[in-house]
Amino acid sequence: MREGSGFPEIKAIVVDIDGTLTDMSRLISLEAVAAMRQMPIPVILCSGNVICFVRAAAKLLGASNTMIGENGGVVLHGFDAKAIVLADIEECRRGKELLLKEFPELESLDETYRKSELAFRRGIDLEKARSIIAEDYPGLEIVDTRFALHLKHRNVNKATGMRKIAEILGMSTQNFAAMGDSENDLPMLKEAGIAIAVGNATPEVKAAADYVCQKSYGEGAAEGFEWLKRQL
């Protein structure tokens, strides 16, 4: 793990919400929010959830007005700005119709508000679903965030959203730190200048991190914020 001067200059941190700022019941940690508000750099929320949810969370929690939704498929720069959509949802809709033939019980989540990908409630045979999609739609993939299943474009992820934000802000992605817990966070952790994993993160996420928090969920996020402040 690199320390101190071994890191690039960090100008902002991109943070996952579910499982990082929350517990598994999706309750926001007040400890994490308090630590987040003490950060001397902008905190950019990044989620697999729809952008209107991320916008509301950013406003209520006091995060940056720049944010990433739908696993990098949608970016918002300014609370009242028009969302920037980085992927076409139509192929995902066709993939959903294919999945429904095998899994008629498939339950969509927030489909009315989604712009670049689709999300489903967990519970179907994930490997079988992935095999079905891979055969007919090789450009798509199904990602399990441990909160939902996301049918998305393979070449669009949280790092894609981070790169778009970096372009808008005139920064390099190496100027971002990133913190997360699940497989959908891996691309942004690998893209960022500093990667932080909360204690409940998957083994793959921990392996990609420069710092692994001892604590889990929101308490881990608070620890991660405090550790990052010491590196700035």
From TrEMBL:
Mg(2+) binds at D16, D18, D181, D185. Catalyzes the dephosphorylation of 2-phosphoglycolate. The active site is at D16. It comes from the Archaea. The gene is gph. The keyword Iron-sulfur does not apply. SUPFAM superfamilies: HAD-like (SSF56784). One of its GO terms (cellular component) is cytosol. Transmembrane segments: none annotated. HAMAP family: GPH_hydrolase_arch. The keyword Magnesium applies. Substrate binds at K158. This is Phosphoglycolate phosphatase. Keywords: Carbohydrate metabolism, Hydrolase, Magnesium, Metal-binding. Belongs to the archaeal SPP-like hydrolase family. GO terms for molecular function: magnesium ion binding; phosphoglycolate phosphatase activity. It is an enzyme of class 3 (hydrolase). It catalyses: 2-phosphoglycolate + H2O = glycolate + phosphate. The lineage of its organism: Archaea, Methanobacteriati, Methanobacteriota, Stenosarchaea group, Methanomicrobia.
